[in-house]
Hints:
The strands form two sheets. Strands 1-2-3-6-7-8-9-10 form an eight-stranded parallel beta barrel, surrounded by six helices. A two-stranded antiparallel ribbon has the order 4-5.
Amino acid sequence: xxxxxxxxxARALVAPNKGILAADESFPTIAKRFQSIGIDSTEAxxxxxxxxxxxxxxxxxxxxxxxxxxxxxxxxxxxGTPLVDILNAAGIIPGIKVDSGAKSxxxxxxxxxxxxxxxxxxxxxxxxSLGARFAKWRAVITIGNRIPSVGCIEANAEALARxxxxxxxxxxxxxxxxxxxxxxDHDIDRCEAVTTQALDAVFSALKRHNVLLEGILLKPNMVxxxxxxxxxxGINEVAERTVRCLKRxxxxxxxxxxxxxxGQTAEEATAHLSAMNKGPLPWELSFSxxxxxxxxxxRAWAGKSDHVSRAQDVFYHRSQCNGAARTGKYTAEMExxxx
Length: 339
Ligand code: 13P
């Protein structure tokens, strides 16, 4: 493990005004996204869509790194240029999703455990040789009737820590992602309690496994009301609760926290991040959004080659709004610029 490499990569991923694009949708997930715009998930469509995002002019002003799916890390665009080379040429750091998905956890009432540790050491060596400098592993925690269970929280924390230790051995920065889902009608109090419990378990496990905190990034959910909660908390309350929860659970040694968007609209995710960045914080607070960065561009693209430039404008604009949110400077008026 080379601590200097890990710290330099982690810091570069949360450089001023920048954040991460999560474009690591698995085959079933990208198929679902493409279905929403009425196109098939073929190898060529996946390649062209991701090429559109990665070749967006000046995206590197606001995008520090991109999380890729295994297929994309090995893929070339229609002109034969490897997609990884396109990112590197733009100064954008390639990353890789390394978990093999959240599977139903035996002995629980519908909870999930993320798999993918077997053979991970060898896969990480290969991913590093293909150009990946950071990785992602997503654990899923569901809020419901008498869940999450301690068993689910602990098993997922343990897997995240083992993954993180293996990544650091290969000089790959682990993004540690314990996602408390927004699904359900629970209130924000419940989300805060469960998120606190999950993060406490994750940081205990990281310590147990001797993970270098300066060489990781944390990717949490925001503390937010459930999607179907009748009284959903507003932007400032989400920002205050999230910062309070993170200050209680995340050591200042961690260089950056990069949120997932988790089903928030693009505008909500940006507004929440901006509100949190209005005060001083012990870590960089940034984004690693999938849907909240991609959805508007996906709809503008709609699978049509003559829509590429328009879709890139939309993607650039979304990235710019989130870049502004890094310093609390996003305003609703910024949304008009692309209309
Ligand atoms: P969303 O921002 O769409 O939640 O995706 C981020 C991600 O990488 C989830 O693992």
